[in-house]
Amino acid sequence: MKTFVKLAAAVLLGGASTMTAMAHDNPFLKPYGTQYEIAPYSDILISDFIPAIKAGIEEQDANINAIVRNRAVPDFDNTILPLENLSPILERVASVYYMYDNCLSTPEFAALADEAIPLLNDASNRVNLNDALFQRVKAVYDRRNEMGLDPVQVRLVEKYYRMFAEQGAALPDDKKKELIRINDELSKLFIQYNKNLLGATNEFFVNVGAERVGGLPESSLAVAAEEAKARGLEGYVFTLHAPSRLPVLASADDRDLRRSIYTGYTSLASSGKYNNLPVIEKIVALRAEKAKVMGFDNFARMMTSRVMAKTPEAAEELLMQVFKPATERAAEEVRDMQAIVDAEGGGFKIAPWDYYYYAEKVKKQKYDLDESQLRPYFALDNVLKGLFEAAGRLYGIKLVELPDAPKYMDEVTVYDVQDAATGEHISVFMTDYFPRDSKRQGAWMEELQSAGLYGDGTVKRPIVYNVGNFTRPAGDTPALLTIDEVETTFHEFGHALQGMLTRAPYKSLAGTRVDRDFVETPSQLNEHWAFTPELLKSYARHYKTGEVIPDSLIAKLDAASKFNQGFTVTELAGAALLDLEWGKHPGENVDVMAFEKEVADKIGMPAEITYRYRSPYFKHIFGDDGYASGYYTYLWSQVLEADAWELFEEKGVFDPETAASYKKNVLESGDTEDAMILFERFRGHKPDAHALLRLRGFE
Predict the structure, then answer these.
(1) Is 399 helix (H, G, I), strand (E, B) or coil?
(2) Which of 372, 517, 534, 556 is 20–30 Å from 186 (CA)?
(3) Entry pTM
(4) Is 15 helix (H, G, I), strand (E, B) or coil?
(5) What sign results for the dihedral spanned by CA atoms 555, 557, 563, 569?
């Protein structure tokens, strides 16, 4: 696909001449000196990354040696605090490296991975598997309640001890060597998996003429026409990127076109030169081996032991509590769709590629609601106004654009997040919302700089960014978001709020560094404000006329809010159950497609619904270990989110006291206390699982 935006000039200069390179100062090797320490992107060359990573490792090694050779009795100040700031150089270069890896992975940059990732893994191993370092941490841990530490310092000590233990620091030397080998092999496989996924996604497209695009909205057709033109083709080109794929599935009258896009997506990276099946087989085998090295029966048991769920059985119990009623509701949804097919004389049974299309027809029939009626009110700029207004009303902040701030692409927007009353700087927030062939699919939040105490004694505020793959502007039409894209915008900003507002004093406890099965609570809760009538009437304005969204549309949107929840929860819970089953796989005789079918049969997955992500493109669990045996956390967090939202509904969705309590106990606290304690302090009771069933309309 054509890249529609200008890249930061220096990124493209990876092949700079030797003379230029000699005259160039590597920007990662010292504090940036920019406003708020934003990375000076225009000064960064591709050739800067590897030397900076190596220099960071040297700096880290020197600081580790200073800790372990210190003859003083290990304590918080001489052991734990230095661990928080082992290498400023490595922090700077790694944060930008991972940003580019996900957002700006040009062929020139992608070529770094084979050298960069092993180096970064080695840097991690030099900390996590250093026995002398672990023994000092253990000495502080053993005396943590006798050293006069405050509760937050005790929690930081406990977190470091747990982190070292979970990463294998307590293993004998032979087991450590096995673990290093396994982790190195896994990291290479993750690189290959992601390369295959990006390659397969960019390779697939469907080119059709005007006779086959009936039913599609004008905004989608404009983008598809531009895509065809960029490829030198006639007609329209549709790809597997969500802004192209989803409108086809929901609106295209041509059933064969829907089937082509659907099967292209669900068979993504499962054959040909970008085949991820052999990669998955090796990952599953290595994870099973890793679990054994770490003393666990299987990978799922190892991963769940570290978070709120504690066991895969507890996670599965929660999932099945919602999966069964979800599939029952999905069966009702299919019956409604089939009735329309039969009434129209279709002569076929609902198939997975029909689900979105006929769901839209049922929605229109039941609620007189057509998403094409809504999109003109959801221009991206207006949605952002609503997003920022809600945050201002709830948490007392304002976002002021920094037009001259450094950025890695010209379509990135940078904001100074301030206290609305005092003007105090709280955070930097950056956005990057449109798809391109150098960016991975999906949407996410990450940070370039953490809040907390730094080695020079200063307390720094965070630099946070949101990334999306939303519908692009086309011609004179601005980016008009779907309902799902509006929700996603609010979701990722919920993560950003936790990152930006944190008041945790130490980096390792700040922002989103909470238990994995708690981290999705703020993001999912923030989605609710997107469609509250009061906020809608503030930001949802027709992009042509400026007309405020009418009450009639708001009423229809509210009436349909629980529509299609059977499908939504079934595909999500199904993927989460598949993930846990992969975590329990013994790692022998792996047949990816056969295993997927076996799990689907075991849990009772409806034939009309596929897992939200099939294994060859389930990047959450096979592109790295971020959500491996932990994808269930989205539903686990939804229990907390649903229960929290009921309090806002009871007190008022913009109630100042409720918002202040939530800000203090959840958004600002980070990991300074146990997540369950923080939630109970805000909510007043333990999470009520039935709140989720009520939210989804199952009770």
Answers:
(1) strand
(2) 517
(3) 0.86
(4) coil
(5) negative
Angle at 429 between CA 428 and CA 434, to 5 degrees: 150
Query: DSSP 3-state assignment of 27?
Result: helix
Give Cα separations from 433 to 17, 244, 401, 467, 659 (angstroms).
33, 15, 16, 5, 28
Q: Alpha helix (H) ranges present in 69-147?
A: 81-83, 88-103, 107-110, 113-128, 131-142
Residue 660, number of CB atoms within 10 A of its CB: 13
* pLDDT over threshold 90, residue 8: no
The values of phi and psi at residue 188, to 5°, are -65, -40
Only one residue has tokens 């081996």, namely 289
CB 225 within 8 A of CB 477: no
Confidence category of residue 14, pLDDT binned at 50, 70, 90: very low
The 10s digit of each residue's pLDDT in 119-135 is 999 999 999 999 999 99
Query: Token pair for residue 198?
Result: 């990006």
Assess contact for 86 and 127: CB atoms under 8 A.
yes
CB 491 within 8 A of CB 648: no
Where residue 475 falls among pLDDT bands split at 50, 70, 90? Answer: confident
Distance CA 249, CA 352 (A): 10
The radius of gyration computed from the CA coordinates of the chain, to the nearest angstrom, equals 25
Residue 369 pLDDT: 86
Give the span between the Cα atoms of 202 and 437, in whole angstroms: 6
Are 472 and 130 in contact by the 8 Å Cβ rule? The answer is: no
pLDDT for residue 60: 98
Distances from the Cα of 386 to the Cα of 379, 525, 527, 651, 657, angstroms = 11, 16, 12, 21, 21
Report residue 619: phi and psi, to 5°: -60, -30
Total residues belonging to the chain:
699
Q: What is the distance between the alpha carbons of residues 693 and 699, in angstroms, rounded to a whole number?
A: 6
Burial class (CB in 10 A: 0-12, 13-18, 19+), 33: exposed
The helix/strand/coil state of 682 is helix
State the DSSP code for 170. Answer: T
**What single letter denotes the amino acid at residue 424?**
E
Q: Which of the following is catalytic: 91, 485, 492, 641?
A: 492
Considering only 13-27, 76-90, 98-112, 372-386, which range has the smallest mean pLDDT?
13-27
Determine phi and psi for 206, rounding to 5 degrees.
-125, 125
Q: Are 668 and 502 in contact (CB under 8 A)?
A: yes
Dist. CA 173–CA 181, nearest whole Å: 12
Backbone φ/ψ region at 510: left (φ over 0), alpha (ψ -120 to 50), beta: beta
Q: How far is CA 501 from CA 293, 458, 480, 663, in A?
A: 39, 18, 29, 8
Please state, in angstroms and rounded to a whole number, the distance separating the CA atoms of residues 684 and 681.
5
Query: How far, in Å, CA of 339 to CA of 334, rounded?
Result: 8
Query: Within 13 Å of residue 6, how many CA atoms lie on the same side as its CB?
Result: 7
String of DSSP letters for 598-628: HHHHHHT--TT---SS-GGG-HHHHTSSSST
| Spatial contact of 210 and 235, defined as CB atoms under 8 Å apart | yes
State the Cα–Cα distance between residues 524 and 140, nearest whole angstrom: 37
Is 332 catalytic? The answer is no
Task: List pLDDT tens digits, range 627-638.
Answer: 899 999 888 889
Helices (H), 426-550: 483-501, 520-526, 533-539
With left for phi above 0 and alpha for psi between -120 and 50, is residue 557 left, alpha or beta?
alpha
Q: Which residue has the higher pLDDT, 81 or 218?
A: 81
Q: Burial level of 345, CB count in 10 A (0-12/13-18/19+)?
A: exposed
Answer yes or no: are the C-beta atoms of 388 and 416 closer than 8 Å: no
pLDDT band at 32 (very low <50, low <70, confident <90, very high): very high
- Rounded Cα distance between 82 and 359, Å, is 56
Minimal CA–CA distance to 224: which of 202, 208, 201, 203?
208
Which pair of structure tokens corresponds to residue 688? 């009520």
